[in-house]
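Journal club side-thread
Mid-discussion, someone asked how the predicted structure for our own chain would compare to the paper's figures. Pasting it here so we can look after the session.
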Amino acid sequence: MRESIVQIYLLLFRIFYRIFCLLPVKPVTLFWVTYGDNVKPINDALLTGFPKEKRYLIYDRKFVKYPESWSTERILPYRRLRFIRLAYLLATSKHVFIDNYIGEFSVAPIRKGTQRVQLWHAAGTLKKFGLTSARSLIVSKPILQRFKRVYQRYGDFIVPGESCAEQFMAPHDLPKSVFKSFGVPRTDYWFNEQHESIKEELQSAYARENRRILLYAPTYREYNGMEGQTVRQLEQLTDRGWTILVKLHPTVRTMFTHQKTHVHFVTDEFSINDYLLITDVLVTDYSSIPFESCLLGIPTILYTPDLDTYRQIPGIVDSYPDPLPVMSTTQFDGVLNWIDSDTALQESRRAMEQFKTLWYTEQPGQATSRIIHHYYHKPI
């Protein structure tokens, strides 16, 4: 029943999209985002460097917490009931930037005179997704074909470098030619003065003399995960001079509370990349975060007590934990021994610093300017 509703919706969207394609293309940049943090730097650059460029925002209310901060001419929370307006904006906007799967693309071919740009919300992957995920094996052939049509209509696909492009080709069934190694816009501010005030604010909130900061950032799971148990295990590190910051995936809401001193469940007021500015050690699992945090040389370990389960749903890359040069363990004693070893931490830092030169083709910190120059033919 649900699939039939989707088909009706897409049919209506296609009809109106085709009608609106008869109208002239307008000098408008449309941001159609789920998370937004890898797209917003493009918006901000246009706001300051191209003040006459009209910018419209379509966003997911669950994840984009402060849409007004984009300062766009139009702000539209995504709802299917608004399909006529969505179809109009997609059909008539010259530039379209996205950061996730957009189902409407399956019935909306890229119009001549327009450009679409996929600024994917991850800079690499340890998990299987798209056409390589376990879920893709159980959906019907028509649905699978719809997925492929969406991917083929992403337009250009921005990645950190060629190695990432090779990772993303199979999940999206895309040729290497569509990938552009411009970098990751959301990490640019790490390399300019913009990050200093954020870093100072977070240090004031969490940094304490003679204490180091451990950031625990687990990924999303389609089942009840091990986050609660892991936090309780990490608590013992507070007696060894560590402050624990817990940053849950945006789709996860903690079902428990902790009152222990030096354990903090951080809020969405700041992004994960903000908290990485004050992080001494990163503990994660199947997350893509290390593909970005390598730019800061943060020692990283993957703690995966549910490895066998996650290997089934949604699946992990066959070479896991490669290509990341990190230690992976299913036992918490392995985490403790690693954290207690200054030698292990130094080796991990050096490995991450070397990895960034492999993963990032271009000089980090200039992704936004490269993208703006490429698509708007003007430097910022």
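Post-session note: The chain has two domains: 2-187+365-376, 194-359.
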